[in-house]
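During the no-cost extension, the postdoctoral fellow (Dr. R.K.) reprocessed legacy sequence entries with the updated structure-token encoder. One reprocessed record is reproduced below for audit purposes.
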Amino acid sequence: HEATHRRPFKPPPQPTKSPSSEARRQVYHLFSKAKQAERAGHLENARKLLHQCLTLARLEARVPTNSPLTSPHVLPPTTARYTFKQGLHHCPKSVHLLHAWAVLEHRTGNRDIARSLFRRAMELQPDNAYVCHAWGLLEQRVGNIATARGLFEKSATNRPNAEVLVAWAVL
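Re-encoded structure tokens follow.
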């Protein structure tokens, strides 16, 4: 009878970084470069970098709220809104996109739209401290102190940090 030759089993190599973490790293790298370009006054370069960032960000559906997307002087609000709509089309349950879009609407004076977007984000993640804090800031600025206080309290309960505690204490 013949001897069978078997190769020893080799498990497939494990990647050191998941595609998701690599995409996230690239998104934040491009975002950092866009912020540097914005600070230096190179708005066209910042727009180009953001476009690259957003192409990758669709995979992650993460947009920091201090993104140039939420800054009306870097990217026209109509362009940013279109980008947020496209992102939510691909990732309809992205709290990050809803939060960042709400911040843009608040910064451009569209408080009712901002509230609607914050509300949608809270429906998806009722205990999201970042959304509570941002929404609380909107309510504080328009004089809805009781609502702001409740949102700051919820934010501080879920993720206490100095910014929220100071905002809450100022009320």
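The two ends are 88 Å apart (CA to CA). The CA atoms of residues 70 and 104 lie 4 Å apart. The remaining legacy entries will be reprocessed before the final report is submitted.
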